[in-house]
Amino acid sequence: MKRIIYLLLVLFTISTSCKKNSNKQDELLTEQEAQRQPNIVFIYADDLGYGDVSAYGATELSTPNIDKLANGGVMFTNGYASSATCTPSRFALLTGTYPWRNKDAKILPGTAPLLIDTTQVTIPKMLKSKGYHTGIVGKWHLGLGTGNVNWNTHISPGPNEVGFDYSYIMAATQDRVPTVYIKNGYVDNLDQNDPIEINYDKNFEGEPTGTNNPELLKMLGDPQHSNSINNGVPRIGYMRGGTSAKWIDEDMAGHFLEEAQNYIKQQKSNPFFLYYALQQPHVPRTPNPRFVGSSGMGPRGDVIIEADWCIGELIKTLEEQRLLENTLIVLSSDNGPVLNDGYADEAIEKLGDHKPWGELRGGKYSLLEAGTRVPFITYWKGTIKPNVSDALVSQIDLLASLSSLVDSKIEKGDSQNLLDVFLGKESKGRDNVIIEATSRTAFREGDWILIPPYKGPAVNKIKNIETGNSKEFQLYNLKGDIGQKNNLANVNPEKLKNMIKNFESIRGDSYNEIEQPNFK
């Protein structure tokens, strides 16, 4: 009996010692993790409106995973994309530069050359210099190559040449050719015996199109979206070859998600930057069959539900890899919403009471608020305290702010260091910001926004969106008039004069085609 008691005491001592050593190792691991640079993840939606997220007031759609970020981080009510269209916003996001400074920063065809100069400062370049591994998964749409891309060899320059160690992308948009994935400059799963040819002006002999072969379609497109067919969907532009490499639209969201999850798992031991660029809810809206009917408002609603699920799965991966408490997540959208954008998918007919623009006026392509004011959330579990902020912030500020976070010394340009605002420590954001829509610009300062006069229709009748065009100056006080119903330009000439002066001090005086008012 004494021997048994002795053995039990020995085993207890060993067990206690092991637990203490294990606890010490866990404490050491925690300290090491705390000292490591935080991971950074951008989640960038495509055409997601201010009113498409339940945390921002949507009542007909539920987005619980985006809401988790919004309710657990800083939810900005005055967060802006730089442009009301995709390519310019993506350029500004990565470079911290207003897109109107680059005359080529417009919606690009799938064959456009790389828009970002390879010598230009970018977020991934800056983070690489501080020891980060950098990756992009999803939509690119910033051009590839130098203008004559051979899709059957290494495609360069591209994401890898502007700072990304790893890239898994589609070249442009889901509605444009080429309809293939590109991994680190090479078309994924390409059969060299079936080379790819691309032409945006002329079809290849014998190739079916949406216009000539409607019997091959499962989705009807307008004349612009009725060229080459892939997976029963007509596209913009013409493509021949590359059959084994072509994507299946309904699998795209899950495919990109898996690539993003694998990237996180592979880089979990290093500080990493992941730019996860969703394709939803951009057209063609092609939800996976398990999400069809999930929203009750057709494909557009269904792909928003799908996107929210993808975001939730990405967060789960960070949790499972014990990375969530050391990861800064930024979620936003490249521009505001659009319903009718090239395909007959009943986005308008099945909208019901849902308002993708929320309380705002306008939408994608518009200088009015819904064009560029978008969902904008920062989340860092255990570091950022939940908060709703009305600070004025722009996506161009992420370059300077992240530079401050990792103690990098770079030229900031248009980007402002708002790190404490993004972390919820400060409530004062920018004093002003310039927004853009299809080469037109407007100026927000404080609670006021100035839209100069521009020629052109007041309503894009094809998209059924107000453009913001007017022969007169428009001046709105957004604090009391978020829906931009009351133009105060005529009743507040002094404020108008001051806004024009401040706008021109940044933008110059050649921003419109209408004669300036005489304030002298």
Number of helices: 9
Order of helices and strands: HEHEHHEEEEEEEEHEHEEEHHEEEEEEH
User: Major sheet: order of its strands?
Assistant: 6-5-4-3-11-1-12-13-2-14
* Helix content, binned percent: 10-25%
Characterize the biggest β-sheet. 10 strands, mixed
Rg is 25 Å
- Broad structural category: alpha/beta
Q: What are the segments in which pLDDT stays under 50 over at least 5 consecutive residues?
A: 7-11, 24-35
Mean pLDDT: 93
User: How many individual β-strands?
Assistant: 20
- Which shape, going by the Cα principal axes? globular
Gap from first CA to last CA: 107 Å
Instruction: Please report which band the strand proportion falls in: under 5%, 5-15%, 15-25%, 25-35%, 35-45% or over 45%.
Output: 15-25%
